[in-house]
Every structure is written in structure tokens, then in C-alpha cells.
Design a protein that fits this description.
The protein is an alpha+beta fold. The protein folds into 3 domains: 183 residues, HUPs (Rossmann fold, 3-Layer(aba) Sandwich), CATH 3.40.50.620; 97 residues, 2-Layer Sandwich (Uridine Diphospho-n-acetylenolpyruvylglucosamine Reductase, domain 3), CATH 3.30.465; 126 residues, Phenylalanyl-trna Synthetase, Chain B, domain 3 (Phenylalanyl-tRNA Synthetase, Chain B, domain 3). It has a 6-stranded mixed sheet, with helices on both faces. A hairpin with a 3-residue loop joins strand 9 and strand 10.
């Protein structure tokens, strides 16, 4: 594709290559409704121009969006005025947003989050399908170097993708020089942003200092070469991501939305797979994988080689805990003390709340037509005549013993958990129900052999443990 650009007139070929690229990468389809991010700079202006050129051919609906952060005073207002005049001249509808960022730390990230929030709102409001951004090959090279210096791994080295869900980047096939030459050939005006020259930003240091030096001293085509490397890394990342999605259910157990357990025994000598799985879990816990870098993964690797009971804290309040062959990820700090909280339930009780679970009991006076559903982990069935009320609901305590179903001798609860491969930090959250004589049910895991029902059983007790829905609200009567 890049050879097509060489030795050809920019005016003719930029448009031709642009259309080939969007067709090859399935970036734009006929009748698409596209939001175009327009800062007024050369990239976004050329992008808007090219979309205008193919608008009739593809029957496109385009909406330009400009965000004024008021960070550069009159210059910011000048950029906004330029974009307004440009869109008026070209007959393209425009939406402008005025934003003020009070806290200036991490400015680039905050501005990015704000504008994408605006784009998403407009996408939904006007039922558009895509957001078009003006990134080019030079942006790609800068991103690769930034991610390399940050240690973001293979996922970061894939750089900027041509398409990501509803985001498209139709200029990613061109260098900044090609875009500039095309703008000059077609008398396309644009508005300079002085912040792009400010070396306080890491990207500008790479853009104006590091890449020019590499081009001068090592390789004048470094931008093209890095773009090619990004394509390779994208394919590698896609393969690894797909593979990890396939093995995730077998290796990782989801306890609840804030708690995941990874079985290390299934990942012997496969650190790269562990990286992708750990990053995915981090994303599930925090709603974003962006803050998971190689430095955090290296800390996890060190943790996997440590002794039992060690843990580390990752960004956004995520804890990783080592427990034998298990690696637990949770939003709650680990607890190393036994919890003596308990409640009692009587024969006459129907349901009580124990922490974040409802425990309910009921007597079954007739056997269900389809039998008992023993596959339901939250339910157990036992011989009511073998149980002595009241029942106590609690967590594990030192010295606990019981007779697991299928055995005949008491077993230490600790050893039962170990044999059942239940991680240490999961054990503290498991509900235990006992009567006046013995433990009768390890909730969700196993009942006691001593209370199982047989062919001689006349009365069956059903016990259920259901997690409380946090967002549950009682229905209210509406008076008309």
C-alpha cells in the first residue's frame, strides 16, 4: 500500500489510497453516519476534507465535533472560530463543546477522557455509528515509543489500530509529511495548535527530538518501519488475546464481580499467557486495562514465586494474593483473622440475612416430580430428623471438623479445603451451617455424611444460600 504512494502526484493518489485503505480495512460502509473529531489542526482538517470528497459516493452523513478546553486563551477561541468558518464553508454540520479542566495534572489523559465522553454521548443521541479520528503514521510511531518506554508489553506495542469498535482512523496509512504535502497541493487551510510544540509533553519530546534524531542518524524511514512493526504486533496481540479468551474459563474462576481466582498449575512456564489473563482480570475489576503495565506484571511474577500468604497492591485498589497454586485478584484487602460473626436460625424461621447472603430453610413433605436438583450449588437437601435445631450460620473457625458426604470419619475442615483446592482467602468467605451437634453443610460445596437422606427418610429439609442483590429495591405502589 505504501508503494502505491511513491512517485505519484499527492493530490490524485492520496484520495485514491485513502479509498483503497478504508475499503480494505472495512472502515467505512455506504450510508454510514460518522462523527468527525475536528481540532482545526492539519490532520483532522484533511480528514474532514477527504470524507467530504467521498461523501456523495458513500452517501455519508458526517457531523464535525470540536472541543474547546480554553487552555490557551485567545488561541483556543481562534481554533474554534476557524473550525466554525471551515464547516460553514464546506457545508458540514458542527457541534462545539466548551470545557474547563481545573486540575491540570495528567492533562492529556483528562482531556482525552472528556472528549471521548462527548463523542459517545453524541453517538447515542444522534444514532451515529462511528467516530473518525485523524491519527497518522507519525502518531503511530510516537505511540509505539511511548508505550515501549512505559513498559506496556505486546499490547502496547500494537500501537494505534485502524479500527477499534466504533472508532476508525482512516489516515493511519499516511505519514505527516504526505498529509502536509496534500494540504498544500489542495490549498487546505488549518489552524496550528501551539501546545503541539510544548516539550513539557512526552509525546512532543518524541515528535520533535527523538524521532528526528533517529531519522537523521539511523534510519530516515523509521516512521514507516515502526508502522510495519505495529501491524505485526497487532496480529500477535490479536492471536494471544483470542487464545486467552478461549482458555480463560478453564484457568480463571469468577467468585463474584470483585473476586477472581487464577489456577497457576495450568500456566507452567507460560508467562506471556499469564500477562494477558492478569490484564483481563484487572480490566474486569476496574473497567479498564489501560493502567496495567509491565512493571505490575513483573510484580505479579515475583509474587507467584513467593511463599503462601503474600500479596501485592496494584493500581485502582486491586489486590493480587498468592495462595499455593492459586493467584487471587480482589478489590478488598486480604483478611488474615478468623471472623466470629454468626447468626442462628430456628425451625420456625423461613429466611434470614447473613452478611450479604440470604439463608432460607423449608421442609419438603413430598419428593419433587423430577427429583432433587443436586447440581444447584446454592441448595442442599438433608434428612430433617437427623438435625437438631437451632442452626448456627457462621464462618470457619480453628479446629473445625466434619464428615464430608461419602466419607465415614471426621476430617479437619482445613484439610478438606486443601484437598478440594479451595484458595486460602476464599475459605474465609465460605458460609458454614451447623446444628447443635455438628457441621451439616459447607455452603455451596458439600453436606455432612451424617445428615444425608436415604430411602428411609420421611422428612427432607432444604437449605438455600442466595447472594443478596445490592441494587434490589422493593416495589412501591403508585397512587394515581
Amino acid at each position: 500500500m505504501e508503494k502505491d504512494i511513491k512517485n505519484m502526484k499527492p493530490q490524485k493518489n492520496i484520495l485514491k489510497v485513502f479509498q483503497k485503505f478504508i475499503k480494505r480495512e472495512f472502515l467505512i460502509q455506504p450510508d454510514d453516519k460518522i462523527i468527525v473529531a475536528v481540532s482545526g489542526g492539519i490532520d483532522s482538517t484533511v480528514l474532514l476534507y477527504l470524507l467530504k470528497k467521498i461523501s456523495a459516493k458513500y452517501n455519508l452523513t458526517t457531523l464535525a465535533v470540536h472541543v474547546n478546553y480554553h487552555l490557551r486563551g485567545e488561541e483556543s477561541d481562534g481554533n474554534e472560530k476557524f473550525v466554525k468558518n471551515l464547516c460553514y464553508k464546506w457545508g458540514i454540520p458542527l457541534v462545539t463543546h466548551h470545557v474547563e479542566i481545573k486540575e491540570k495534572s495528567n492533562l492529556e489523559s483528562k482531556a482525552r477522557n472528556i472528549r471521548f465522553s462527548i463523542f459517545r454521548d453524541l453517538l447515542q443521541k444522534y444514532e451515529f455509528q462511528k467516530i473518525a479520528l485523524g491519527h497518522n503514521k507519525n502518531d503511530q510511531a510516537e505511540t509505539l515509543l511511548l508505550n515501549l518506554f512505559r513498559g506496556s508489553g505486546v499490547g502496547g506495542m500494537k500501537g494505534i489500530t485502524q479500527k477499534s469498535k466504533d472508532i476508525i482512523r482512516p489516515l493511519l496509512i499516511f505519514t505527516r509529511n504526505e498529509i502536509t504535502e496534500f494540504a498544500n497541493q489542495n490549498n487546505i487551510e488549518f489552524s496550528e495548535d501551539s501546545s503541539n510544540l510544548n516539550l513539557i509533553f512526552d509525546r512532543n519530546k518524541i515528535r520533535h527530538q527523538i524521532i528526528p534524531e533517529i531519522e537523521k542518524s539511523l534510519n530516515p524511514k523509521v516512521v514507516d518501519k515502526m508502522s510495519q512493526s505495529a501491524n505485526i504486533f497487532q496480529q500477535t496481540d490479536s492471536f494471544l488475546h483470542t487464545y486467552c479468551e478461549e482458555v480463560f474459563p478453564d484457568i480463571v474462576k469468577k467468585v463474584d464481580k470483585d473476586y477472581f481466582i487464577l489456577n497457576l498449575n495450568k500456566l507452567i512456564n507460560k508467562d506471556i499467557i499469564l500477562f494477558y489473563l492478569a490484564r483481563k482480570i484487572f480490566g474486569l475489576l476496574t473497567n479498564s486495562e489501560q493502567d496495567f503495565f509491565t512493571v505490575h506484571f513483573n510484580a505479579i511474577i515475583d509474587l507467584t514465586r513467593s511463599t503462601e500468604g503474600k500479596y501485592i497492591q496494584l493500581p485502582k485498589g486491586v489486590f493480587a494474593i498468592k495462595d499455593k497454586q492459586f493467584l487471587s485478584f480482589t478489590k478488598s484487602p486480604p483478611v488474615f483473622e478468623f471472623n466470629d460473626y454468626h447468626r442462628q436460625i430456628n425451625k420456625t424461621s423461613r429466611r434470614i440475612l447473613f452478611k450479604d447472603h440470604y439463608i432460607s430453610i423449608s421442609e419438603l413433605k413430598s419428593i419433587p416430580i423430577h427429583g432433587y436438583k443436586f447440581t444447584q450449588k446454592n441448595t442442599c437437601y438433608i434428612d430433617l430428623n437427623k438435625v437438631k435445631f437451632p442452626l448456627t450460620i457462621r464462618y470457619r473457625q480453628p479446629g473445625d471438623r466434619f464428615v464430608p458426604l461419602g466419607m465415614h470419619n471426621p476430617k479437619k475442615l482445613k484439610n478438606f479445603f486443601i484437598d478440594s483446592q479451595i484458595p486460602r482467602f476464599e475459605r474465609d468467605k465460605i458460609i458454614i451451617i451447623e446444628d447443635q451437634n455438628q457441621i451439616i453443610w459447607i455452603a455451596g460445596i458439600r453436606i455432612s455424611e451424617n445428615v444425608k437422606f436415604t430411602s428411609q427418610t420421611q422428612r427432607v429439609l432444604r437449605i438455600k444460600s442466595m447472594k443478596k442483590l445490592k441494587d434490589y429495591r422493593k416495589a412501591k405502589r403508585i397512587n394515581k
